[in-house]
Amino acid sequence: MFGVLALVVAAVTAGGVYTANALNAEVPQVAATVSVPEVAAAPAVELDAPEVAAYAIGELDDDELLAASDADESVPIASITKVVTALVVLDAKPLGADEQGPAISYTAADVQIYWQTIAENGSNAPVYEGSTLSQRQSLEAVMLPSANNYAKSLAIWAYGSEQAYLDAARAWLDAHGLHDTVVVDTSGLSPDSRSTPRDLVALGRLALQSPALAQIVAQEQSELPAVGIIENTNELLGTHGVDGIKTGTTVEAGACLLFSGDYEVGSRTVTLVGVALGADTHPELNAEIAGLLDTTAAGFHEVDVVDAGDEFADYATAWGDRAVARADGEASVLVWSDTPITIEVDARPLALAADGADAGSITVVAGDEVVEVPLALDGDLEDPGTWWRLSNPGGLDPQSSARVLEPVGSAE
Q: How far is it, in rounded angstroms, from Cα 165 to Cα 277?
């Protein structure tokens, strides 16, 4: 009798323990079944590349080059040197957008520089003893008609002497990583003022990042007191998207142009910066640059990769609850040529979760561009309830829901 009673008590106790364990068991996390779409790459762009001695082209906001020929060849750069002059002067005497800056009084020493420039057969603009121009107007004289005399006078005004300027220029070039660029004068008349296409694209980016200089190089002309109307020597300006930057011409360097252009691509604006050097004539050079710009710009595409509400993951519990994870936002990327686009889905394992809960994230990568979009749960993952808990021994064992599947689909 005692033995039977003991068995009954044990059975009741065991049942109570089972019931307590079942009702109080923690709901395990459910791993998602993830669907990672593939995005087909665009065809590779075919560039109409220049046949000049050297060229390079890149984007304003990307340190890499899109295309180049002899990118690291050191060559004479003629009056592109004046971009260095302008930026180093602005480093000492900053000038904001639309600002005129301080007045500069020109003296007999500046007139002597003018006559020396003429004797060297350098490009020039008139200067008169006692005349006054603002800093901005002086920079216009340097950058638009490419006046060698104003480049030298402006550098001396900012630094006290040409040698002091050259020392500052070397330090400025090194500070900006332009180690392959050497300037021995303010104008580029010397063939020893040299650089590489790679460095010059970087120099062009720096020029466009200067609000005052970016405005100046985009001007077709300006009118200066005592000087008159000065014209920009960049004949591509206003065509093929071109809005800068600086021409150059010497016997040693040939016809050269450091250029920039803006292009609408979908909802974005792409700014290209490039250089071409060594053509026989500027008309020949301009035609080749136009072809390069047109085909480079045509190679950009804005791709809508993720739309809000797109489904990327599915959750299914052992007790029959279903929910999906959807993109809680959009993602588009700007790609050039056949740059691959990849999608990574990080769907978090979830236990009890309500509609709208954080379910992880989607990461879209295209070149250097990375876009993240959150995932949100669409549906509820609820407690299985008393009856399911009691009727499914072991159903809440964490091992029973530890599943990770990654079927791969495709998206155009």
A: 26
Q: What is the residue whose two structure tokens read 């500046």?
A: 110
Q: At 52, which amino acid appears?
A: V
Task: Give the pLDDT band (50/70/90) at residue 25.
Answer: low
Query: Residue 294 — φ and ψ, nearest 5°?
Result: -60, -45
Asked if 376 and 349 touch (Cβ cutoff 8 Å), the reply is no
388 token code pair: 């399911």
Instruction: Report yes or no: 232 and 120 within 8 Å, Cβ to Cβ.
Output: no
Where do the DSSP E strands lie in 85-192?
103-105, 132-134
Single-letter amino acid, residue 267: S
pLDDT at 318 over 80: yes
The pLDDT tens digits of the residues spanning 217-248 come to 999 999 999 999 999 999 999 999 999 999 99
Residue position matching structure tokens 């791993």: 31
**Residue 143, token pair as written in the block:** 């950058």
CA distances from 310 to 39, 307, 333 (A): 14, 6, 17
Reduce the DSSP state of residue 250 to 3 states and report it: strand
Q: Give the Cα separation of 182 and 174 in Å (integer).
A: 10
CA–CA distance from 374 to each of 33, 50, 136, 312, 349 (Å)?
Answer: 17, 44, 48, 11, 15
pLDDT tens for 179-220 read 999 999 999 999 999 999 999 999 999 999 999 999 999 999
Cβ-Cβ contacts under 8 Å for 273 (sequence gap 6 or more): 57, 58, 59, 60, 201, 204, 205, 208, 245, 259, 260
Query: Which structural domains are found in the chain, ordered by start?
Result: 26-40+304-401 (2.60.410), 54-298 (3.40.710.10)
pTM (two decimals): 0.86
Instruction: State pLDDT tens for residues 252-287.
Output: 999 999 999 999 999 999 999 999 999 999 999 999
**Degrees, nearest 5: CA angle 53-56-58:** 170
Per DSSP, helices labelled H in 132-223 are 135-143, 148-159, 162-175, 197-208, 211-217
Distance CA 125, CA 406 (A): 69
